[in-house]
């Protein structure tokens, strides 16, 4: 959970709104040109989206990537749904984690915001010594709170007791 003041919350909400609107414009371009190729979409609409919404360059790239990925998954549905201002993908250029202060820095339309984390000891243990390079900023409209899902990589020890692995749930839907 992110702890920020009212001013920071407004900036985050405006960033999420612009990101969702940018995604919807990219989706329209994707449908008009019948392409889900990220590179093609970038050539078709990068400059327009950047100028229209005032997003940082890397947030525009993340929006294009999100649309390309979603359009590939939803190709079989008759009409793709619209993007809502509830989440935004972040990469190493738009997000950083400071372990000493237990805060994250996020690129927004109002510049970079440094937001303290409200996390428990379990999450702190997982983040100690990590250098995460991606995250997802999420907004819960019901509780009006912001969360950040930070992706970390860890070595997983082989389970004791031999090699009788039945299966691994990777969270993928096929």
Task: Give structural notes.
The structure is a single chain. The protein is α+β, with helices and mostly antiparallel strands and 174 residues long. It has helices at residues 6-32, 38-53, 57-73, 121-127; strands at residues 87-90, 95-98, 103-108, 111-116, 134-140, 145-151. The strands form 2 sheets. A 3-stranded antiparallel sheet has the order 1-5-6. Strands 2-3-4 form a 3-stranded antiparallel sheet. Helix 1 packs across helix 2 (38-53) and helix 2 crosses helix 3. The longest helix has 27 residues, at 6-32. The mean pLDDT is 88.
Mean pLDDT: 88
Please give the number of β-strands.
Answer: 6
Uncertain ranges: none
Main pleated-sheet profile? 3 strands, antiparallel
